[in-house]
């Protein structure tokens, strides 16, 4: 069905709409647009490269690829809850560019850029102004929740978004004039779409819902023979996953990528839905909001922001689907309406990520697509309700609306976080506290934690020998709430002594877990009281097996206490050593003073 009333502005030259893929010298407007997006990305970068890192999540993106390069297999030699591809790619990246925090964060930056420009490519169908607004909104949501950490989610979302860009492009090419060249181009694009979708699943298998909704709807509108190209592409894309399953085995792979994250981990990591109105539920979020960064503008409290953000995450995703549905009814199979529906369905499919743990990180991971699409939904609706409004005013108002939404609903986690890193970048605020050893560095946001870590590292370096085995965990090993994995990164000459490099409640601390036997093999143990005050409304408050604590008390001697017990260093006792019990779960004076 044609759309005689669709204005010319609905048919711009855009890659996603099927525009010819050929080199053209960018015009002044295109260069200006790219410069704006690049400037928004670049302004906080110096601060982001020196920002406080998450000692477990960013730590394991530094350590796991190194273990893969050494021959270890995820789900067999160490716990890994996601797809294998991000670790394999990072291992090759480190071989090429060096194993450093800066190298890891550069890879993370490239993943973020992939998300931002995929959003730009999708929304370019509504013009440059709209696409720029969408990309800037996306930037505020992807640069702030985890900084530049190279986590697999951002890589998977980037690949997933680009897969739907190529799928929509293939569809739009096929709908245009017929001919062998057009048919061949459509087939090439759908193969690329399938390839990228398969790779996205190898990064994050839980993206199957978003990819299934978006690609499934689009494929149902095409001839069955066109499915073959997508099947070929996705078959090629999932080769890393198939290779991993063959190497690790079916049972360990299912346990590590399905049962552990979905069944066993969930009770100890999920947060209330909706978030609590008056308190912050997430322990890490509460720590970050303890001494909050500077923000002078009027704003609702952080817990109120999370509560409202949660509901808007769902409402906005549904609105996009409804708008796309009526756009399709109004203009039929028009290229822009199809693009809108596919993007909306992908955003809708991301919602489970925000539902299972609605803290600022997971909400941003979902709404970096949903909120970013708001300008184009406004443009579509305004064409029906405000037909006399020009194309440029529509785009400008749409961009202003999403900017205002972020300012009202979640300014602490977008504008304030961005401003903080921008201030560090221009020298208006000092960098965090550095922890370093033999050229490897990490950044901590708290002075005493960094001081204790540096002192412990110096002692362990002086006393340990290459090839010895190291285990890192919380002070109370019956509550494996978190693990400062970055210590493994600081000591590549020591071998991790445990499968649970990453420690999670309900996994490492469950009765009968291999943590106890792993501990028996360790030469050195680092225990941390940094997280002793961890408190969340879930099963993480429960104690699991006490066997590891008993092994610590019976077989390990304390050789170092740092910052009044904030960090503790143990070695396996030898003949003649006095056995010092492991001060299990005893918070330091500093920890008590800080409220845990």
From TrEMBL:
State the UniProt keywords alphabetically: Membrane, Transmembrane, Transmembrane helix
For this UniProt entry, which segments traverse the membrane?
31-49, 106-122, 129-153, 190-218, 230-250, 306-328, 335-351, 363-383, 395-415
Q: What is this protein called?
A: Unannotated protein
Species whose genome carries this gene: freshwater metagenome
Question: What lineage, starting at the top, does this entry show?
Answer: unclassified sequences, metagenomes, ecological metagenomes
